[in-house]
From TrEMBL:
PROSITE patterns: RINT1_TIP20. GO terms for biological process: endoplasmic reticulum to Golgi vesicle-mediated transport; regulation of ER to Golgi vesicle-mediated transport; retrograde vesicle-mediated transport, Golgi to endoplasmic reticulum. One of its GO terms (cellular component) is Dsl1/NZR complex. This is RINT1 protein. The lineage of its organism: Eukaryota, Metazoa, Chordata, Craniata, Vertebrata. InterPro entries: RINT1_Tip20. Pfam families: RINT1_TIP1. Transmembrane segments: none annotated.
Amino acid sequence: NKPEWYLTQVLMWIGNHAKFLDDKIQPILDKAGSSVNAGLEFSRALVMLILEKLAADIPCLLYDDTLFCHLVDEVLLFERELYSVHGYLSSLPSCMHILSEESCFQRWLTVEKKFALQKMDSMLSSEAAWISQYKDITDVDEMKVPDCAETFMTLLLVITDRYKNLPTASRKLQFLGLQKELVDDFRIRLTQVMKEETRASLGFRYCAILNAVNYIATVLSDWADNV
């Protein structure tokens, strides 16, 4: 239940050994005419240990939503730091390969959808759902975007950020399918609220729904360039 313990430990080992590997070991390899990068090889070997650990742990966590989600969150944070801080290469083995395995991946999709729907329930039932966060700042709030629409698009963006480093396009497309489902679900929810407001089509909430639809359509259009 604490994957961050070993994930953080590995990041510490990589960071703590970087100078020694660069200053002492790499010159020996270079002198011998080897193409091996000491730092990357050290990191790769430690990542292989993590893959073994994950392969053993994940079957025990698959049906505990809380622990499984926590594991996925910690693995994604680990991967981000591994690449951005320690210069790890995408061509080397990574935790995303474990998360892409069928049973694990399908479970990830299922819990991602479950928590996204819960988030949508809470954002639409909020008292501030149809109020713009920036209603008092005219130069920021040209589109009069209600809070629920902005929160929903942030939710989609966060999901993209979570799956963008998956190793295969087919897995990314499955996540895109989930996002399309969520967009359609949100559309249905907006339609249901709109039907309740048809008698007051110039009312505050009806206008907020139209602003929400306009904003979502505009943002999705902007995202169309993101392969």
